[in-house]
Amino acid sequence: MTVSTTPTAGSPVLRTQYQKSVAAYWNTNQQDPVNLRLGEIDGLYHHHYGIGNYDPSVLAGPEQTRDERIIAELHRLETAQADMLLSYLGEIGPSDRLLDAGSGRGGTSFMANQRFGCQVDGVSISEYQVDFANRQATDRRVADQVRFHFRNMLDTGFEAGSRQAVWTNETTMYVDLFELYAEFARLLPFGGRYVCITGCYNDVTGGRSRAVSQIDEHYTCNIHPRSAYFKALAANRFVPIHVIDLTSATIPYWELRAQSSVATGIEDPFLTAYREGSFHYLLIAADRV
Ligand code: GPP
Ligand code: MG
């Protein structure tokens, strides 16, 4: 057996039993049509949700092509979510370097490269995802600019101050936020930007609701309270500049997904959690000072 290590630290990529179980989930539960059929549309494979209103005509048109229209619409909303995240990275030039922390099958990384023309590195603790995304990079002829690495976002091994911006697109529920932001503070120079889209539970309504616990169980994750983000950012020299509650913008995506052939069963817990107010879908953009 080989134990892959990060180049600088020499420590194993998967450090804990929990991380091994998360990696096992993403290495094996990968054939869900909710992700593959959407990705096949244009080769952007996302592992995050969507925002914006759906076009109601997708439900009204001819029955035989209805599901196809819904799938294309879900994909459009997921791409809109990634576009919004990227629009908060600030001024990025072709010579800047970006980090996608928890890069999945690479969708947001490829969009960033397209948008800014710069180099992007993605890290994931799933070797399946890293291989998949690197194959996509080759197919898209951007393998010299967009690279995916089997590395831990808590210990990326990249050089200190090497990134103009870092983002997490729905990945922070797998890690300790204090450890994560300590690593990002190392990677970003003064004035660097961090953007996060996440689901977090509502401190005002109390602890994890039943619906939030069901989401945790489904994905083997640990959704953090909203407050944890701001405590961990402040403790690591990050100052929020934008905080946007996207909860109402993501509900239509879940309503549409619930009516599609690619629904996975997690739609009801998301809709319940958002509607009852126990859970928020948040964008946070913060500057490293
Ligand atoms: C999965 O995206 C996203 C997560 C596991 C993070 C959890 C997010 C929260 C907001 C709590 P996916 O595209 O792999 O999920 P699915 O297969 O359900 O579409
Ligand atoms: Mg998905």
TrEMBL record:
Keywords associated with the record: Methyltransferase, Transferase
Domain of life assignment: Bacteria
Keyword Methyltransferase applies: yes
CDD domains, alphabetized: AdoMet_MTases (cd02440)
Keyword Mitochondrion on entry: no
A biological-process GO annotation: methylation
Gene3D superfamilies linked to this entry: Vaccinia Virus protein VP39 (3.40.50.150)
Domain Methyltransferase, first and last residues per copy: 99-192
Pfam families xref list: Methyltransf_25 (PF13649)
One GO molecular-function entry: S-adenosylmethionine-dependent methyltransferase activity
Protein name, as recorded: Methyltransferase domain-containing protein
Organism the protein comes from: Micromonospora carbonacea
